[in-house]
Amino acid sequence: MIDLNDSIIKILGIGPKAVKNFEKIGITKIRDLLFYFPRRWDDFSKISPIASARIGDFCCIRGRILAISKTKTWKKRLNITEALIQDESGSIKVIWFGQRYLDRILKKGDEIMLAGKVELSKYGVNITNPIWEKIKDKTLLHLGRIVPVYHQTKGISSRFLRAKIIFLFRLFKKGLLEINDWIPQNTRDEFGLLPLERAIFELHFPKNQKTLKAAQKRIAFDEIFLLQLRSEFFKKQLSDFGAPKIDFKKDLTQRFVRSLPFSLTNAQKKASWTILEDLGGRSPMNRLLSGDVGSGKTIVAAIAALNVIAAGHQVVFMAPTEILAQQHYQTFIKLFDNFDINIALLISSNFEMEIKNSKSPSTRLGMGEILNKPQTRNSKQKKNVLEKIKEGKINLIIGTHALIQKGVEFKKVGLVICDEQHRFGVKQRQALRIKKKIMPHFLSLTATPIPRTLSLAFFGDLDLSIIKELPQGRQKVVTKIVPSSKRPLAYDFIRKQISFGRQAFVICPLIKEDEGMVITGRQKADWEKKSVEAEYKKLSKEIFPDLRVAPLHGKMKSDLKKKIMADFGSNKINILVATSLVEVGIDIPNATVMMIEGAERFGLAQLHQLRGRVGRGDHQSFCLLFSESENPLVLKRLKALVESNDGFSLAQKDLEIRGPGEIFGTKQWGNPDMAFDFLLDSELIEKAQKAAKKIIEQDPGLEIYKEIREKLQDFGSHLALE
Ligand code: ADP
Ligand code: MG
In this predicted structure, what is the pLDDT of residue 718? Predict the structure, then answer.
């Protein structure tokens, strides 16, 4: 008996050397080999009579060897094996070059299968270097069927893999190998799924295109089913928790909305309303607020925060980068200027807080704290900030991941808001529990416009609110692809905008020119010359010596970054040369030019995000795309950007061009290629959701369906099952 967890060394013909080779492609166990699915399939199932073969055809023939002989070329001493193959319709010559032992393996009279292209050369009409397989009693592996083609590595060819996998297949048939299906029979029956072992073997050696499709569907279902199970399981877990009940404070909210320099869009109102309703409910909110860049998600989050704080709870606001956290900190200080709300900023390099008390309107305590060196001069103030948070004197705590580090304790968190990142693990959330059975509400903000099917697949546990409408008066950002000959004009254009009082971003793909270079002697691609350092030097010294230009990238000291962002925010800097660091969320309404160097280096969604950094104020804004690339796919991407300002349709395009793997990450996927093809298949996704719901209803703790539980544990390590 062989177990799926056994080493592949148990397979006939796999020795220590092959084991080493297999390791390189991540295969150590029998299970790994079974799940090493083909990259594509070649259909060699159709056999044609020799007489019908035409020059230029790729054909598959079956016949007997009439004659076979080996010679050597005179000059290069190259082995040439020539054979004459005959079937009922006629005969054809085949030639192999460089095969030393072929004449010993193939003998006159052997029945053989061949596939290759029919050519006319100095040897006459022939098939050169055909794929071949001798026909004995055993099953054909390489020809005469739909044949699997694998990603190969040194020492492991597709031919080799086929032989090993068919070996496992035979063991299975003899009952010597057991493959348990982790999806229960009744679920399989209900949703018309192939049994796992059938699907596996069909994927390697499909009977026909139809069975292949069914097998692909089964494996895709597995992946999507797991996503759904994770969502359902999480929802179920969450439903065991109560939530802080946040009553809607109508007057306060109205006062806040009136204090804004604009009126809310309908979409903002609707989203706010839904969120306020969630907050008033008994169970924890779990909501994703998706809206294009600039759609004004921050205000919606602020309305939620205001109500939670008014109910006596703290709000934790997590941003993906320090810069963004700093910016949100500034924004919220302004937004809540006339409200009795204390705010703190917690990023690893800096702890800061704004405390209000009834006597003096506002006190800012900036601390410039370095967390890594707790012994520095300000460690006392840092302690002070942490203490105030713990005591509940700070109402809104904004920061990066530093927020959920050890040593940060909250008094009573009522709401967690995550900006531009989708997941906040159950564990992290449980850590913020108010009481054993009371969990804070959760709101995730994202500018990645997510088509419905995908949001169902990936974020099935989150309720979705979409802001589809931009604030009124927003002008479309005029987007242009600029050829290099027009570069000087682009610089003139920037100069002019600055003379009107506006500001510009110049985005480069690299920080330093030689960053990440490994291949020596290779000619550099044009984008590789576009670094923040080089462009900053050029722009500040040669092009705009009279203007204020500043660099910004992730490797700079945090204090410096902060100062530069502040100076840019107050228009003390005209041109900011930066990496895509500014991609998410940065809000400088006075900036009107977004110039992107090496635009081919960025994905469509990313370019759209970058473009979203301008066009946020009242002034007409521009996005200038520079690329030396002639790759049609790149041009397609850039053109899509020129033609559309709508994040949702761009996301859909991006999905088509790059596939969801690039967009949502592939880490947790066992068989991404397989699943991705089906991700746009809403029927399959809905089926998977239905199936998952049923399972969790029947067995909420996954105690009966142990195999499902195990699968799920492997699937997401961040999934807290305890
Ligand atoms: P995002 O959804 O990308 O996070 P923000 O919340 O940063 O967008 O808002 C973008 C800009 O639009 C901010 O300067 C904000 O003050 C402004 N804004 C938000 N809502 C409105 C509105 N209803 N009318 C006009 N401007 C608005
Ligand atoms: Mg934002």
Answer: 41
Collapsed DSSP state (helix, strand, coil) of residue 380: helix
**SS3 breakdown of the chain: % helix, strand, coil, rounded to 5?**
40, 20, 40
pLDDT score recorded for residue 223: 84
For ligand 1, mutation pick of 584, 587, 588 (most atoms within 8 Å of CB):
587
> In the prediction, which pLDDT does 518 show?
46
Residue nearest to atom 20 of ligand 1 (CA): 296
Give dist(CA 64, CA 107) in Å, integer: 10
How many other CB atoms are found less than 10 A from the CB of residue 620? Answer: 14
Q: Ligand 1: which of 288, 298, 448 to mutate, most ligand atoms within 8 Å of CB? A: 298
The Cα 171–Cα 166 span in angstroms is 9
pLDDT at 257: 97
Q: How far is the CA of 471 from the centre of ligand 2 (A)?
A: 14
Structure tokens at 656: 């088509």
Which residues neighbour ligand 2 (ion) by CB within 5 Å?
Answer: 585
Tell me the C-alpha distance between 459 and 445, whole Å.
13
Strand, helix or coil for residue 156: strand
pLDDT value for 658 = 64
Q: Give CA–CA dist 195/362, Å, rounded.
A: 67
List strands edge to edge, sheet with 575-578.
Answer: 478-482, 622-626, 591-596, 503-507, 575-578, 549-552
Query: Which of 628, 643, 637 minimizes the C-alpha distance to 482?
Result: 628
Q: Whose CA is nearest to atom 5 of ligand 1?
A: 296
Read off the tokens for 143: 């020809």
Q: Taking Cα atoms as reference points, which of 231, 189, 198, 233 lies closest to residue 216?
A: 198
Q: Which two structure tokens, joined as six digits, stand for 589?
A: 């309404």
Residue with CA at minimum distance from ligand 1 atom 9: 296
Q: Which residue's C-alpha comes closest to atom 24 of ligand 1?
A: 471
Mutate to test the pocket of ligand 1, among 317, 328, 472, 616 (most ligand atoms within 8 A of CB): 616
Give Cβ neighbours of residue 686 (< 8 Å, ≥ 6 apart). 456
- 344's tokens: 């703190």
Contacts of 609 (CB under 8 A, 6+ apart): 293, 447, 583, 584
Nearest ligand 1 atom, CA 467: 2
In terms of phi and psi (left: phi > 0; alpha: psi -120 to 50; beta: otherwise), the region of 501 is: left
Q: Rounded distance, CA 285 to CA 465, Å? A: 12
Q: What is the pLDDT of residue 360?
A: 43
Beta-bridged to residue 153, according to DSSP, are: 156
Q: How far is the CA of 272 from the centre of ligand 1 (A)?
A: 14
pLDDT along the chain (722 residues), means of 10: 87 87 89 89 90 90 93 82 94 91 89 92 90 82 88 87 92 89 92 93 92 90 88 84 94 96 94 96 91 89 97 93 86 92 86 62 42 47 86 93 82 91 64 79 84 73 85 86 92 96 94 60 64 94 96 87 90 94 76 94 84 88 91 86 85 69 48 59 84 92 88 62 32
Give the residue, out of 257, 260, 265, 299, with the most ligand 1 atoms within 8 A of its beta carbon, to mutate for a pocket test: 299
Q: What is the pLDDT of residue 310?
A: 96
Nearest to 529 by CA among 439, 468, 598, 460: 598
Q: Output the ligand 1 site: residues, CB below 6 A.
A: 262, 264-265, 268, 291, 293-299, 447, 471, 585, 587, 589, 616
708 C-alpha to center of ligand 2: Å? 38
Q: Which atom of ligand 1 is nearest to the CA of 264?
A: 23
Residue 261, SS3 per DSSP:
coil
- pLDDT for residue 716: 60
Among the atoms of ligand 1, which is closest to the Cα of residue 589? Answer: 14
